[in-house]
Design goal:
Elements (H helix, E strand, L loop, with lengths): L25 H7 L1 H37 L6 E6 L5 E6 L6 E10 L2 E13 L2 E8 L5 E8 L3 E5 L8 E6 L5 E9 L2 E12 L3
Antiparallel strand pairs: 1-2, 1-10, 2-3, 3-4, 4-5, 5-6, 6-7, 7-8, 8-9, 9-10
Length: 200
């Protein structure tokens, strides 16, 4: 007679045909209550409000930058002036666009160019800066410290010379560019009077 085998199945209890209920997390419990639903609505409205405020502030900052560059538009164009000794100074600026102005200048003496410079006015963080690259060398930045309808002043106190660059629009429509500061412990100022000329 064969030996009976023991069953590995555990006896099932009667009436245990119950479905497992899914666990309810803190968020689900919060939503399930009337108070929790109110809190979630308030949080949602705050998120929307914060997003709207941030968008308004960013738009206002962009508009302010554009307005500032527009106030520099009188520098745009081509300028030329005569210096002592027969030297000729020429400077040219593109109109403001894309939050920047691009310029260049050169000094011509006896048919030669002993000096030239690449220039840029651009946005740098929360400031406007004047970037100069004399002879194509490393750039030096000067921060805009004053701007009105007829003058723009840029400064860099740590630079050897100049520490200040000034553009002034004269009553006759001409332009006076100035570099000034201290050199070898003595104050120094160099003026470049220029008149507007046709850009060839």
């Amino acid at each position: 007679m064969p030996r009976s085998e023991k069953s590995n199945k555990k006896p099932t209890e009667a009436g245990t045909n119950h479905k497992l209920k899914p666990a309810r997390g803190p968020l689900a419990l919060l939503i399930a209550t009337r108070k929790g639903a109110f809190i979630l609505r308030v949080i949602g409205r705050l998120v929307v409000l914060i997003a709207v405020v941030c968008a308004i502030l960013l738009s206002a900052a962009a508009q302010q930058t554009n307005l500032t560059f527009d106030r520099l538009s009188w520098i745009g164009g081509c300028w030329e002036g005569e210096m002592t000794g027969g030297a000729k100074t020429q400077e040219q600026w593109m109109r403001p666009e894309g939050n920047s102005m691009i310029g260049m200048s050169r000094t011509v003496v006896n048919g030669k160019t002993p000096f030239f410079e690449f220039l840029q006015i651009k946005q740098e963080g929360d400031n406007l800066v004047y970037v100069a690259r004399p002879q194509g060398n490393e750039p030096t930045s000067f921060k805009l410290v004053k701007l009105n309808a007829d003058a723009a002043i840029f400064e860099n106190p740590t630079h050897d010379f100049p520490q200040r660059i000034i553009y002034q629009r004269q009553t006759d429509g001409s332009l006076l560019a100035v570099i000034e500061g201290t050199q070898s412990g003595k104050p120094k100022r160099v003026e470049f009077p220029m008149r507007r000329v046709r850009c060839d």
